[in-house]
Recover the amino acids of this structure.
């Protein structure tokens, strides 16, 4: 399907796409415990532009250039094609061609003309994507278009038609590269106008004894555990047609641990994942996302599962968290999801840590 093709094809050309193998053991329950809503706050979506970022600002690659368009795929979303059967076991343990989404998916009808967001020289032309190296060191890729330009052509921002959106794609994927590395086009000072007043949510905080399960009760955590926040965001503008209502990933997730009920800080606010500006390396994917994570309309085996929403399970720590760092007792674990505009909200889960000897065998 077109949505994934740029990952595989792009990998051949420029970006390393890694096929990550997951250990094939166990199988975790996916049922999430609903976290308690915690203090919810929403920041104003005023772009925090600085003199450096302002110079990077550019318009939209489809008309109208000066108006915001719906985005159905965020920077850093998981892109996942599982080799296994469409079962929980397949999802949790099968081999996956998985990576971070390296750009944004701008929703537009098939056949829509796509224009460069910045002037420059066409460097790469393939049957379904084009790269323009712009003046000033950045480059942009436009995917899922039938090209109308040739390598070496000089193209004008908002003037030259690069190509038209291919049939069935219903979007143009935009990758922004700085020094060859993808950066987040939704960060303040990049694509604009872009306003976002939807708030990302943490819907559950869960625990496992390993990346593939089993799930643990928050009432009884001991030894090393995986801590997971299920989080998602809503596109800033509703996406039409079949991608309507599907979630995207938050740009950032943070967490903190306090004693309960005394509220003394044990672990101060810590960044678990942050794609506000840049991506982690692809090899870190399964240190950022827990197994069970998958993209919207996931592919498993040879099928794509239409209309199914994605699941974004974010690890609070890249590796298992050792609860023996904490004294036995009761704690409140708070996870906060953020978008690039600073909108954020939190959920919390009470946990009980029991590591003293002669407690129940785990
Ligand atoms: Zn895309």
């Amino acid at each position: 399907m077109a949505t994934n093709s740029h990952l595989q094809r792009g990998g051949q050309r420029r970006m390393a796409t890694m096929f990550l193998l997951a250990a094939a053991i166990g199988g975790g329950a996916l049922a999430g415990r609903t976290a308690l809503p915690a203090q919810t706050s929403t920041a104003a979506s005023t772009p925090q532009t600085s003199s450096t970022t302002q110079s990077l600002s550019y318009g939209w690659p489809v008309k109208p250039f000066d108006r915001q368009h719906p985005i159905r795929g965020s920077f850093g979303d998981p892109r996942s094609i599982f080799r296994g059967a469409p079962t929980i076991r397949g999802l949790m343990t099968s081999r996956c061609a998985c990576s971070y989404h390296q750009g944004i998916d701008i929703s537009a009808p098939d056949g829509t003309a796509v224009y460069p967001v910045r002037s420059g020289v066409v460097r790469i032309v393939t049957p379904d994507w084009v790269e323009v190296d712009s003046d000033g060191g950045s480059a942009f890729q436009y995917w899922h278009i039938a090209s109308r330009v040739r390598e070496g052509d000089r193209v004008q921002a908002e003037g030259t038609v690069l190509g038209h959106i291919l049939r069935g794609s219903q979007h143009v994927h935009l990758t922004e590269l700085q020094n060859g590395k993808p950066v987040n086009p939704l960060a303040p000072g990049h694509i604009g106008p872009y306003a976002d007043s939807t708030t990302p949510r943490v819907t559950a905080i869960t625990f496992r004894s390993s990346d593939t399960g089993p799930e643990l009760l928050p009432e009884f955590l001991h030894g090393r555990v995986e801590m997971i926040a299920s989080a998602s965001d809503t596109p800033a503008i509703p996406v039409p047609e079949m991608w309507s209502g599907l979630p995207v990933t938050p740009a950032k997730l943070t967490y903190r641990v306090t004693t309960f009920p005394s509220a003394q800080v044990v672990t101060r606010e810590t960044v678990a994942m942050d794609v506000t500006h840049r991506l982690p390396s692809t090899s870190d994917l399964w240190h950022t996302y827990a197994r069970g994570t998958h993209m919207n309309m996931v592919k498993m085996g040879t099928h794509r599962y239409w209309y199914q929403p994605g699941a974004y399970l974010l690890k609070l720590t890249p590796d298992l968290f050792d609860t023996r760092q904490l004294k036995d007792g009761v704690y409140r674990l708070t996870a906060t999801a953020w978008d690039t505009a600073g909108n954020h909200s939190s959920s919390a889960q009470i946990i009980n840590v029991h590591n003293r000897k002669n407690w129940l065998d785990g």
Observations:
- The CA atoms of residues 40 and 63 lie 36 Å apart.
- The first helix runs from residue 2 to 13.
- Confidence is low (pLDDT under 50) at residues 1-54.
